[in-house]
Amino acid sequence: MIHFPAFRIAGLALAITLAAAGSVSAAKPGDKALEDVRILSDDAMQGRAPGTPGSALARAHILKRFGEIGLSPVGDGFEHPFSFDKRDGTRVEAINLLARIPGSTPGGKVLVVSAHYDHLGVRGGEVFNGADDNASGVAGLLAVAEAFKVQPPKHDVILAVLDAEEGGLRGARTFVDNPPVPLSTIGLNINFDMLSKNKKNELYASGASAYPALKPILDAVAATSPVRLMQGHDTDADGPQNNWTSQSDHYVFAAKGVPWVYFGVEDHPEYHRSTDDFATIPQDFFRRSVATVVAASLALERDLDRLQSGH
Predict the structure, then answer these.
(1) In a domain? residue 162
(2) Which InterPro entries does the protein's record reference (predicted)?
(3) Which residues contact 100 (CB under 8 A, 6 or more apart)?
(4) Taking burial as the number of CB atoms within 10 A of a residue's CB, which of 8, 142, 162, 271 is the most buried?
(5) Residue among 94, 289, 101, 293 at smallest CA distance from 191
(6) Residue 1 falls inside a structural domain
(7) Terminal alpha carbon distance of the chain
(8) Crossing angle for the helix pair 6-20 and 53-69, to the nearest 10 degrees
């Protein structure tokens, strides 16, 4: 295991604290997304494997951003611990982070926006920083939270920053097994996983094949989106390997019959490699990708009541 000097960790923690001290009042949603990715994919985070000091440092940044944005906790707090056993019998203590933005009309359907913050950790002496997978998705979720604070939603919105997605979707399974609201009240799960790297200027939104009511909403967003918003990767038409239905945390919602839409890019050469660093992110594409998922999330929340049947 790689050991990072104490001053390295402390220095990054100080940078996180100073960044959180600024006001978001003069900023637009998404303005801090690149900085969120840079911090979360720093070497000091040790690849954010569950139960590690790097994971704790990543949580500290996310929690400070929750406070900066002005989010409310879910239940007794933002942190929701759970544990699991690895294949070698090692017990791992993991933590989901849950926040809420109250809707203007309480009692209706709830929107859950999710992104996992864990990655592969340190392997063979190399840090797998996971800038795209999935620091980018967490940054997208935080940008969406900022947007809902500027344009308050009609429906309650739960923001779920989930742990232990890699190798088992464990954080999402814990959320669904112990939901903070009845599953029957969740009208849609929007999941972000890998938003920042695509040479073709393409971002995919999957889920409309199972829930056709999503298609016209996504079509309307795509008509003006700053990236090419595509739909697909949600059936076996092009082979099971190209069906993303089970490829990230949205799958556990899908398995319970909750409508879902998953935003992500196609695999790239840095996927699950130690080269998935902040320096390899095309910053202009990422900014436009974040703007797209913000616009889509606002649109999907506005039309949440149309998605009851999924058809």
Answers:
(1) yes
(2) M28_fam, Peptidase_M28
(3) 71, 72, 73, 74, 156, 157, 158, 159
(4) 162
(5) 293
(6) no
(7) 50
(8) 10
138 within some domain: yes
Quote the pLDDT of residue 308.
65
Q: What is the mean pLDDT of each run of 10 residues along the chain (311 residues)?
A: 37 43 61 98 98 98 98 97 92 97 93 98 97 98 98 98 96 98 97 97 97 97 98 91 95 97 96 96 98 98 80 45
138: nearest Cα among 202, 61, 228, 250:
61
- In sign, the C-alpha dihedral spanning 78, 75, 300, 267 is positive
Tokens of residue 298, six digits? 């606002």
Instruction: Give the integer Cα–Cα distance in Å for 100 and 70.
Output: 10
The values of phi and psi at residue 243, to 5°, are: -95, 115
Is 67 inside a domain boundary?
yes
Bridge partners, 122 (sequence order)? 127
- Specify the number of domains making up the chain: 1
Domain that holds residue 220: 6-307
Burial of 154 (0-12, 13-18, 19+ CB in 10 A): middle
Cis peptide bond N-terminal to 134, omega within 30:
yes
Q: How far is CA 288 from CA 44, 141, 305, 306, 309, in A?
A: 27, 14, 28, 27, 32
| Token pair of 213 as six digits | 């009511």
User: Helix, strand or coil for residue 157?
Assistant: strand
Supply the CATH number for residue 169's domain: 3.40.630.10
Backbone phi, psi, residue 186, to 5°: -80, 110
pLDDT for 88: 86
Q: What's the one-letter identity of residue 159? A: L
d(CA 205, CA 262): 5
Helices (H), 21-136: 33-40, 53-69
